[in-house]
Amino acid sequence: MEMSQIWTGLAWLVGINTVLTVILLLFMTKYPKYIMYAYNAFTRIKHGIVKKKIKGSKNTFSYLEYGPTTAPTLLLVHGFSSSKESFFGVFKHISRKFHVLAVDLPGHGETPLKDTDIGILHFVECVNEFIKIMDLEEKKFHLVGGSMGGHIAGVYATLYPEKLLSLCMVCPHGINHEHHEKMAAQAVQEQKSMLLPQTKEELRAMFTWLTHKQVNFPDIILSGILQIRLEKNDYYKKLGEVLIQDDNKNVLERNLHKIKTPLLLIWGKNDNVLHPDCVEVIKEKMSEPPKKVALFEDVGHGVFLERPRKFIFTLLDFLNSLE
C-alpha cells in the first residue's frame, strides 16, 4: 500500500471522528438530560443497584432495589419534585444486610401520573399500593421518608402501623411554623417558588438554598437536571399549590399523637426550608416521644445529599437499638 493511500485513510478516520464528536456535542447540548440518564445508569451498575418497574391496579411504579430480598427491608420515600435517584448516596453506603427499595411517587421520576387526585393522603395510598404489590405487608418493613416523603411516611404510620417495624422521618414537611407560612405567602405573592427553577442560575440557587455547604455541579449536569425538571414543572406547580392548602399542609401535625411506631427523627440544624424548631413541635404533640432524635450540625435540608454516610450510621444505630 502506498503512503498516499495510508495518509488518505488516516485523514478519513480523523474526519469521521471529528464529525461524530461534533454531532455528539451538539446532541449533548440540545439534550443534556441524556447525560443524567447515563450517569444514573453508571451509578446503578457500579453499586449493584437494579432499576425495575411493577404494575399495580392504579399505578405503574418505577423503583430501585438493592440487597437480598430475604434481608430486612428499608423503603425510601423521596420529597417534592425529587425522585428515587435522590437516595443514591444512601445506596452507596448501606450494608447488603438490608433489602433497600426507593420508589418514584406518581408524577415524579419515572412513575407516570395516572390520577388527577393528588395530595398527601393520595400519596399515602399510592405508597400502600406499592407495598401490597411488593408483598411487604406480611414481612413488615422499615419506612424512611424525607421532606414531603417524611410527611407521607409519618401519616402512613398512623394509618398502617401494623405493617411497620420502624419509622424514620427526615426534615418532614407537614408541621406548622411561622417560617413556612411566610415562604408559602411569598411564593403565592410572587407566583414563583425556589423549588420550581426555570433557569440554570435558579437551579443553582435552589441547591444553595437546600444545602448548608454549597454543592457544585458542572454546567452540563445542571442543564440535564433542569431539562428533566422543566418537563414536569407544570405538575410540580399544581402539586405545590395543593400542598399549601389547609387540608394538606399539616396532615402530619394533626395526626402526630397517633404515631406508635418506633421513630427516628432527623433534622439538619441549618435547614432553610423546614425550620428545625419543628422538632420540638413533634416531640410535644406525640403521645409517646420519638425513640431517637438526631440534629445534624452544619447540614441543611438536603440530608441525603449532604451527609448520606452520617445518615446511614445514625439509622443503623437506631435500628440496632430496637433489637
From TrEMBL:
Where found in the cell? Answer: Late endosome membrane; Lysosome membrane; Mitochondrion membrane
Q: Which InterPro entries match?
A: AB_hydrolase_1, AB_hydrolase_fold, AB_hydrolase_sf, Epox_hydrolase-like
For this entry, list what GO says about its biological process: acylglycerol catabolic process
Q: Which transformation does this protein catalyse, written as a reaction?
A: Hydrolyzes glycerol monoesters of long-chain fatty acids; 1-dodecanoylglycerol + H2O = dodecanoate + glycerol + H(+)
Per the UniProt entry, the Enzyme Commission number(s) are 3.1.1.23
TM segments? 6-27
> Which SUPFAM superfamilies does its entry note?
alpha/beta-Hydrolases
Source organism of this protein record: Clytia hemisphaerica
Q: Which residue numbers delimit the AB hydrolase-1 domain?
A: 72-202
| Key words, A-Z | Membrane, Transmembrane, Transmembrane helix
Report the GO terms under cellular component. late endosome membrane; lysosomal membrane; mitochondrial membrane
Cross-referenced Pfam families, in alphabetical order?
A: Abhydrolase_1
Q: What does this protein do?
A: Lipase that preferentially hydrolysis medium-chain saturated monoacylglycerols including 2-arachidonoylglycerol. Through 2-arachidonoylglycerol degradation may regulate endocannabinoid signaling pathways. Also has a lysophosphatidyl lipase activity with a preference for lysophosphatidylglycerol among other lysophospholipids. Also able to degrade bis(monoacylglycero)phosphate (BMP) and constitutes the major enzyme for BMP catabolism.
UniProt-recorded name of the protein: acylglycerol lipase
The record's GO molecular-function terms, alphabetically, read: monoacylglycerol lipase activity
**What membrane topology does the annotation report for this chain?**
Single-pass type II membrane protein
The principal localisation class reads: membrane
